[in-house]
Structures are given as C-alpha cells and as structure tokens.
Amino acid sequence: MPGASGVPLIGYLIVAAAMFCIGAFTALRRTNAIMILMGIELMLNAVNVNLVAFSRFVPAGNGARGQVFALFVLAVAAAEAAVGLAMVIIVSRRRDTIDVDHINLMRG
Amino acid sequence: MNFGTVWPEIILAAVGMALILLDVIVPKQRQRALGLVAVLGMVGSGVAAAFEPRNGALALGGMIILDPLSLFFRLLFLAGALLVTLFSVDYIRGKGRDLAEFLALVCFATTGAMILAISWNVVSLFVGLELLSISAYVLAGFLRDEPKSNEAGLKYFLNGALASSVLLFGLSLVYGVTGQTGIPEIAKALVTAQTQGYSTVALMGLGMVLVGLGFKIAAVPFHLWAPDAYEGSPTPIAGFLSVVAEGAGIAAIIRLVSVAMGPLEGSWGVWLGALSILTMTVGNVTALWQKNIKRMLAYSSVAQVGYILAGLAVGTTAGIGAVLFYLAAYLFMTMGAFTVIASLSSAGQGNEISDYAGLGVRSPILAVLLTIFMASLLGIPATAGFMGKLSLIGAAVHGGMAWLAVGIAVNSAISVAYYWLVARTMWLDPVPEKAEPIRRSAELGAALVVTTVGTLFLGILPQVVFFFANWASVGIR
User: What are the pLDDT digits (tens) for B251-301?
Assistant: First the structure.
C-alpha cells in the first residue's frame, strides 16, 4: 500500500531505523557531550519519522493520533535540549572539558 | 472539558509557580518559610486527590483515568515530595543555594510523576514522564558550585534522554502496529494484531519500552548512571530519585507493560523475572564494597528495584498489590535513611561510611533511627521491609514463579553484609577525636518522625496499606 508519493511504508521505516541506529551509535560511542546530545536528537527524529509514516498508513481515523504524538515529541525534545545544553555549559565553564571520559570524579 | 478531575496536579503546579514568584518578593533571610508554602501546597493537593472520583472514570477526553491506582500513586508521590521538602530546607540553605527554585522544581517534578501515573494514553504518559525527568535532571545538578553535582546532573541527563528516545521508538512501533495511543485501545488492538502476524513488531516495541523504562528505574544492565547520580546529587534529591522517580517508572511499567501490552503472547513475564533476579543480585553484590553511604544506598535501591520487578513479573493481582505495598514501605525506609544522611551532612559530616564511626555515642537517636531503616531495607521482622518482602514472596509462590521467591530470599541474605557494616561502624567503632555534636531542625525532626512511624507502622499493622494496595491493583485492566 504505497503513500501519496508512491513510497511504500517499509521505505520510511528503513530510513527511521537507520537514523535511530546512527543516533544510538553516536550517543554510545562519542565522548563529547554535545555529540551525544546530537545523537539523541537524531534518535528522537527517527521516532518522529516513524510516527508520521505510520499515521499515513494506519486505518482511517487513527492517523491524527500519530501526528499529534510527533508534535509532542518535538516540543519535549526542544525542552530537553535546552536543559541539556545549559548543563553542558556549566560543566564546560568549571572543568574546561565536555569530554565525558574526563568527567569522572565518582567511581566504583 | 472538565479540569476539575486534575485539581491535585493543577494545585501542585500552581504552588510551584507561586514559589518562583515568592522568591523575588520574600527577603532572603525569611525564605525558610517557603518550605511551609510548599508543604501546604502538597497537603492541599493530597486532600484534592482524596476527593477525586476513583471509580475508573475517564476524563479530559480519555487521556486520564481516575481509578484506585491513580489515587495510590498520587498519594505516594505527594508523600515522597513532602518528605523531600521537609528535609531539604536546611540542606539547600546550608549549601547557600536558592530554596524557592529548588522547591518549585520538586513541585513540577512531582506534578509530572502524578500526570504519568493517572495517564490512560501514551501521549500524556510520555509528557508526564518528561516533566518529571527534565525537572529531575536540573535537581540532580542543582548544586552548581559542586563539580560532583554537575557531573551527576550531566550523567543523569545523558542517560535519561537516551532512555526516553529508546522508549519513544518502542511506542512508535506499538502505534504502528495498533494505530492507537490510548492504553485500553492498544490492549484491544494488540489482540487482533497478533492474529494478523504483527506480533514480532509489537514485541520489538515492548522490548524497547522495557529498555527505556529499565533505564529510568535503574534496572541492571541499565543502572550504571544511578550510583553517580545518587552520590553527586543533593542528598534530598537522591531520596527523590529513588522514591518518586523510580516509583513513577514502576507506574509506567504497570500502565504500559502490564495493562497496554498485557495481551501480547510470549514469555515476557519470564524475561521480566530474569531482569528482576539480575537486578537484585548485581545491586546487592556491588553494594558490598561501597565506601560512600549514598553510593551504597544507590546500589541498595537498585536491588530494591529488583525485588519490585519480581512482583511485576508475576503479574497477578496479588503481584501488583505486593509491588504497591513495597513501594509504600520503600518510601518510608529509603526516605528515612536519606533524611538521617542529610541531617548528618548538614552538620558538616562526610558521606563516607567510615565517617559514621561512633555515631551511636555522638548522636544515639540518629543512630537508632538509621539502624531501624537499615533493618527495614534488609527485611527484619516488625519493619515495613519485612512485610513488603513477605508479600512479594507470597505473590511469587502463588503465581507459579517460586524461583523468584528463592532469588529474593538469597539476595536478602547477601544484603545482610553491607547493612551490617553500617550498623557495626555506628555502634562498635570508636568515636573519632574531633567529633562535633549534631543539631537537628524542626523540619528534619518532622521528617524523621514521619519516616520512622511509617516504617514501624507498616511493619506491625500493615493491614490498612495492604487493603489499599490490593484494592488499587484489582481494577488495573
């Protein structure tokens, strides 16, 4: 069942899955706090691609739910990024580094 | 739309905003009174919650449900927030930070937890979870001048945000399979989806939801952030994270996994049980060699999450009831332990376990209380923790998962070692040379009285809370 553009659902899902994996890989492998944050944002956007793609293909009448959910995800992601960047700024002012491998006062 | 059904949340959020306003009006030396404002707001919210319907009525277009479980979690989170408020007044002022800002964030975080617990739709559940989480990230990093607190906030944030995105991806897959975001509609649609052969995608979604929530409640192997977040956070927030934030994660698991995805076929109950055994064992064993008491309590609370997950794995009404009772018991004993730690560190004492040497002589009352809380966390009879573990073990045996009961018993035996270490240090080690006497304020005294009475009451006369917990667990689906 292709969408209006002729692309089948699986195409969108592959893009979303790829975005999610790239984001997860970035978040888990990079040590720069900003890069980790960017990885997380990529993962959240993969969620949005998924939601919007599904909303086009689920039975009629249920599509709006996914689109509204995607809007909520967008808003919350913005709030999260604002708080996260503020924290990174505080850490970088005090420690002169945002490399999470070097932010390790606590161990054990 | 009838907003009267969310009065408790409206009141609490309004008090949070009022606190920010009062911060600029009330002079700095009078700001101690703001603690009272927050306490009154939380009590008012609790009273409003008690007057809400509890017959399973839906409100706000079906986004929230007012059932006994909603009432239980609302009161649980408010009680946790109340205790945090009581024992953070001295602590935060002692650190020279802004009390109003702190209490406002506690109010917002608790509002988020309550919204999550009353949600009947994954969208509102997610918004509640994020309101809680984002406020909690700031609270963990609240001591801006302390590098450890910065680090705790940053680590908690990075892990929490990662967890949220994994959880959301899982939810998006579930939406794709069912076309629904309402919790009961998802449960219904999953039944038909299974006959159409979509259960693999749904199971993937369930798995990712569990991973995301596993991060939030610090279940092994997703617990690595917890010790750092607990050690570096302000002590009241360590208590808040372990009681309110984890309780909210458990509420989300009940609503999302037990209710919405309950119809999914497959052995996910067994997987949850395996996660439970892994969590309690790793938590207890790692706690054995901790030197810092907050870090030790962090691993101890990882272990307690393991016990709670056992009840969820069983999944019967009795299992959920035991989980709820355990959460109530956990509220009093963990908050009590953190209150003692906070009163000691307000008096200038360190957080290493060796700093507790001779506490039995220096401050017998605090030492007795900490011993009671440790005994309860361990599960000694006549304490709340004992009744909690007993009901979890009973539910596991009756639910046909006796191996979980064995796991809980073995793990309780392991945990004797590290709780005993603290008790021995307090009572048997010699008093250090330059020991200072310890002062207590009225707020801390109140928090200590409430937590002690709660711990002993639930251990000796558990019937009332048992009844409440079982009543709340009957109607969840």
Answer: 999 998 888 887 776 667 888 899 999 999 999 999 998 999 999 999 999
The angle that helices A33-57 and B147-178 make with each other, rounded to 10 degrees, is 20
Q: Contacts from A44-47 at CB under 8 Å and sequence distance 24+?
A: A44/A73, A44/A77, A44/B164, A44/B165, A44/B168, A45/A19, A46/A16, A46/A17, A46/A18, A46/A19, A46/A20, A46/B169, A47/A16, A47/A20, A47/A73, A47/B165, A47/B168, A47/B169, A47/B171, A47/B172
CA dist B156 and B140 (Å) reads 8
Give the residue on A whose Cα is nearest the Cα of B171.
A47
Contacts of A14 (CB under 8 A, 6+ apart): none
Contacts of A16 in chain B (CB under 8 A): 172
Q: Which of B63, B149, B150 to mutate to test the interface with A (most CBs of A within 10 A)?
A: B150
Residues of chain A contacting B147 with CB distance shorter than 8 Å: 94-95, 105
pLDDT of residue A21: 96
Chain B residue with minimum CA distance to A107: B228
**Mean pLDDT in runs of 10 for chain B (477 residues)?**
83 96 90 92 96 87 91 96 91 88 96 96 95 96 91 94 96 91 90 81 90 93 92 93 95 89 76 93 94 93 95 90 96 94 81 87 89 94 94 93 94 93 89 68 88 94 91 80
Whether B435 and B358 have beta carbons less than 8 Å apart is answered as yes
> How high is the pLDDT of residue B350?
80
pLDDT tens per residue, range B318-360: 999 999 999 999 999 999 999 998 888 877 778 888 888 888 8
Please state the separation of Cα B292 from the chain's center in Å. 21
Interchain pair A47, B137: CB under 8 A: no
